[in-house]
Design goal:
alpha+beta; four-stranded antiparallel beta sheet; 8 helices; 21% strand; globular; binds zinc ion
Length: 274
């Protein structure tokens, strides 16, 4: 599933393709995409709208429209926006957007978990409230803010990092990479981390997310950039998807366990359980 770095790369591609463009034709073929809203009603409302900017909150893409509405998109497992000169039929094509420069934005989604919500200006604050915590790459997100969010929490730190209300945008890949970077065991109780380890974890989350963006994201299954190119972060993983291989730091064998129902990769020598 695309995480913050992958979604940020998609945002940048969409921004080039869409900012300042008008949606001249909109076709939404899959009602699951816009549910509970009717897909034809959403397409009708989008028709003729101009995209003023493309933003991101956590793993959500936010297409800001003239008039203040926003189309909030989540790619979930296999959603993919592809910017092309000409539309063409393809498997799993769920939505098409014809732009006023003659190009097209196609949305395909094999697993059909992706979502698009059209929100009026007045609905947007309420939509985000309680759904997403701070943006990890924003200056407001500090070690103190992370420590505050973890206080009293008895869940494993890996599970807490996956909780979008603790910090937005971190998923399975970047949680494992950050915990390895910070030498913290994924099963460590979140509220038991002292200030030193919280600071290390905070720095590690920022480092691995920035590394992911710099690498163009991680292409493991279906993630592609808007221009169709794959990312390269998968070549830079230290622990994720590396079980059985030597830890790049100490040479011990990387192991895979389950935490919060997710496959979790760690070096048992670098990150000992206390
Ligand atoms: Zn190690």
């Amino acid at each position: 599933m695309p995480e913050l770095p992958e979604v940020e790369i998609v945002r940048r591609g969409l921004s080039v393709a869409l900012a300042g463009r008008t949606l001249e034709r909109v076709e939404i073929r899959d009602g699951r995409l816009t549910a509970p809203a009717d897909p034809d009603a959403v397409a009708h409302d989008l028709h003729g709208a101009a995209v003023t900017a493309v933003g991101r909150r956590g793993k959500y893409l936010v297409l800001e429209l003239d008039g203040g509405a926003a189309l909030v998109c989540h790619l979930r497992m296999t959603g993919w926006f592809h910017h092309v000169a000409e539309p063409s039929e393809r498997p799993h094509l769920r939505a098409l957007f014809g732009l006023d420069d003659g190009s097209w934005l196609l949305y395909s989604d094999q697993r059909r978990f992706g979502t698009m919500r059209l929100l009026a200006a007045r609905e947007q604050d309420g939509y985000w409230r309680g759904r997403l915590g701070p943006e990890p790459l924003a200056p407001e997100w500090t070690p103190a803010a992370l420590g505050q969010a973890l206080r009293g929490r008895r869940a494993p730190i890996k599970a807490l990092l996956l909780d979008q209300r603790i910090v937005a945008g971190v998923g399975n890949i970047y949680a494992d990479e950050a915990l390895w970077e910070a030498r913290i065991h994924p099963l460590a109780v979140g509220g038991d981390l002292g200030a030193v380890r919280v600071r290390r974890l905070h720095g590690a989350v920022v480092t691995v997310l920035e590394r992911g963006i710099e690498s163009g994201g991680a292409t493991i299954d279906s993630y592609r950039r808007v221009d169709g190119a794959a990312g390269a972060m998968q070549n830079r993983f230290n622990v994720f998807d590396r079980s059985g291989e030597p830890c790049p730091r100490c040479g011990a064998e990387i192991v895979k366990i389950r935490v919060a129902q997710r496959g979790t990769h760690l070096c048992p020598r670098c990150a000992r359980r206390r």
